């Protein structure tokens, strides 16, 4: 009740100040809010520009540098320092787990590193409140606008624009703090002084406030900026400011958990591991709160209980104290818990049980998720993984066609045919859904490389759907043969099996190329198989005419036989189209 009374008193004094000072005080508040919006936007622009510059290399960096928990931690630190957003790194990591590019244990180590990397942001902000960054802002804007209009360096220009917006927002926040003059606002002084900084209740209240606000604004950087602003004016005691920082660490995990809501089980576990890691860190720091904070203050050279500091001295040193605590907390927490990654993995696996197996005949997108804070480059990675799943499903469908040809039991025959028919519907749905997703991604500001990838992927899904159509056409021809009580002779079965074997080889090679790293692969094998299919089709076509003339089988049987052979040849063409699109090569194939 006391908290609400004090908060009401604070609001009264603030409104009284607004009435007294008129529009100027309201404009200052608007300036603070606008500065925070500019800060969030600058961080977003800077982060997305760096991710676009890195592009698909992020996948290979994460894959190559997460061989053990320590390299994973260093990778998370490095990437977060680069993109200046732990939320971007954790969402990226969750996306990679969702796409099967990272294991859960690897993801946890990367997330731990992200918590260390994000401390750089706090140091940049503390510098912004201590040093006049105005002279760095305008050159960054100037160079950025020039580079944006150059094809090769436009993302560097975007990055400089983000940096400029970030620094400019810090300059505006610092000015707004001086104009607010909270150190002489009796309502603000009474409100914050009503909390006993030696009481764990007060610490816990501000920890919750920091958590809730960060969850709401989805930006720990913005809340950190407000915390630094309040502490630098001297109105917010350092202990309460540090409690807010701890709350920010918990609240920032909401971003990854929201992004993982539509993801698979492992991705949701990775997001939950981020929350578990940060909550465990907050718990042990709360147990050692005052000794730990005093140790950090001593490192910086600040005496928390002293009243000898002037407002200017507090404005200079308290942002450094907050940044130092943020660093010490996250580094210590990571060094302690990195040894317990297997245990954290077990906890999140226990908390999030595996979902019941969905039958493979049911339509579902396994890897594409509607997340937040994902750049188009990361979305393309998810779509590529979904296309791999699509191709594997089509390969299974062809396997069913091979079973259908050999099945003599009509009940089993009907079941296999029904599965093939259902797979055809699934392939149609997958093409539409992946195309819709890529269309949404293409609406964003894309790099030329990403635009090219999306064009290739749209062609791939179209050709994969055509392969599904061919499989269904072959199945219908086999069914027509059985319905009409016709049958192939032994030689025809041998030829069909040989053609099916070549077609299966083509599909196998296509899946290898779709799943591999393009630079390490060669499309020659696929083209050679297609040539073999074409040559064998030509051979069988000539033999079929001779066999019909020799009355080896009826014309109707010969027609159905060649329908299957021709459909396999078409299927091989579709496979080559997928390979050409994936590998970015073109080869003329003989008729």
TrEMBL record:
Q: Which SUPFAM superfamilies match?
A: PhoU-like (SSF109755)
* One Gene Ontology term from the biological process aspect of the record: sodium-dependent phosphate transport
GO MF assignments: sodium:phosphate symporter activity
What is the species of this protein? Hallella colorans
For this entry, the protein name equals Phosphate:Na+ symporter
List each coiled-coil range.
none
Q: Which UniProt keywords apply?
A: Cell membrane, Membrane, Transmembrane, Transmembrane helix
Pfam families, per database record: Na_Pi_cotrans, PhoU
- State the GO CC annotations: plasma membrane
Which InterPro entries does this one have?
A: Na/Pi_transpt (IPR003841), NaPi_cotrn-rel/YqeW-like (IPR004633), PhoU-like_sf (IPR038078), PhoU_dom (IPR026022)
